Amino acid sequence: MIKPYLMFNRECEDAFKLYQEAFDGELLAMQKYGDMPPNPEFPVDESDKDLVLHAQLKLTENGYIMGSDGSRDCIEGQKVCISVELNSEEPAIKAWNILKEGGNVQMDLQPTFFSKLHGSVKDKFGITWMFTVM
């Protein structure tokens, strides 16, 4: 399944509340950075713990958006990522290896506390892809 992933700079929760109201949407998930298990490799400032790590909103019968507050300033044109959710590691690794050639890995494809694999890569055309293997 492919879902648009919207990146925000400290405004994801407010945006998703607006989108929920506009579409009579169903908020399926809203995790905060403070909900993450402590990790010395990814420290979270106290002031960032209420920011959105991941949100998912069902807008229509088959329409979803996801989003989060990024740790960097979001430049116009870089606020949307293509999120690819797969059930198997093999097709994710294949696509990942093709898309990273000539591109820029933003987060290595690796196991996380919320998925078998997760990572982000900007391809050589400037499109950011986020992979999650459930």
UniProtKB/TrEMBL annotation:
Gene3D superfamilies reported for this sequence: 2,3-Dihydroxybiphenyl 1,2-Dioxygenase, domain 1
CDD domains the UniProt entry points to: PhnB_like
Pfam families the UniProt entry points to: 3-dmu-9_3-mt (PF06983)
Signal peptide: none
Coiled coil: none
Domain PhnB-like: 2-130
Name recorded for this polypeptide: VOC family protein
Organism: Mesobacillus zeae
Taxonomic path: Bacteria, Bacillati, Bacillota, Bacilli, Bacillales
